[in-house]
Amino acid sequence: MRLLAALACLLLSGCISPVDYGDVRHAAYVADPRCTAQAGAPVDEAALPLFFVTSRLPDCRTEAIALTNHRGDTLRYGRFAAPRETEVGGKKKLRTPMAFQNEGDWWQALQAETDRRQGRVLLYVHGYRETFETTSKDAAQIARMTGFDGPVIEYSWPSQGEVLKYAVDETNMYHDVRHFGDVLRTLADRPWVKEIVIVSHSLGARLVIPAIATADRLSRRAGRATNISNIILASPDIDRETFERDTADDVLAPERVERGRRVTIYVSLKDKALAASRVLHGYPRLGSPYCFDPFEAADLRAKGQPERCYVKAVPGVTVIDTTDVSRGSTGHSNFLRSAAACRDFVDVVDGKRTRPERIATPWAYVFRLIPDPADPQPDDNVICHRTAGDEED
User: Fold this and answer.
1) Which stretches are annotated as coiled coil (predicted)?
2) How far, in Å, CA of 100 to CA of 38, rounded?
3) Which member of 5, 171, 216, 236 has the greatest number of CB atoms within 10 A?
């Protein structure tokens, strides 16, 4: 507990540390015409198969365009491929092949790709402590691992990519609520999009949940059925009680659940990042089955059950507890790191609602993942389709 409190204090120090504007005027970063995509400009779609939308400020001063951790002046659209290690200044750094695309052209290309497939689109929203490179790496891994039968879109907001900038990330995430909401509403309004699969990680859940609620309200007013059906929250850094209170009336309203909407939540008691967030915020996070109520914990002990407390039962919600198969230094990205969690995640993205590897618990909507006795030490990297050079979380 002392360690978590110390980490929370460090996170708070990020709150009072100013964000440097930098030595360059932000206007200078985007002065080059390459930062403003022209209609009809060609994009090598074969080399850049994945889609992105970002509110990050680009840096177009050098030959290779990069996306910074500053807020941009507008949303930008483009295409990208999996990052690769590139030598920069004598050092190897991760770089994402990318190109901006005119917004209208981007939507046309997305429609063409969607029409060629099954009408499904996967939208990935990252969390805390990410750069465009790390986010792109995860989005590309999701595309590889799931073999998703439609376009994969990465939404990249200006996370700082630093441990001590949690409060800055939180501020930028809330600043981006309108941007992301506009993108999701536009996507949900497209008649050629039959199903939107939303995957959010960590702090990204706080962008996703309110945006879905708003998109639902607009769909209802227009008399349209929602196409947002499969929502996956991996290690969600959102207040557990707030989720219980609010989603039952909008995101998981009975009519939505009856039409097939479902929310799958991946949680872990070994998630150190969410433990620190709990200390910082004072209340448990949705992605951690921490028992905030000591009396509830005592009742579980008396019954001989693990001391794990989950979100209350909400129709449409399934909880997958990855505590026993946790991986990485923080246990905050098991859906991309642990073989058991990766297999489960792939099936959920594919629309499957059961897996034989899930272990039942006293709660009908909660399942545990445990090591496979026949394969107690699986090759996580192979099963999760991680590439050489991927770092632990």
Assistant:
1) none
2) 9
3) 236
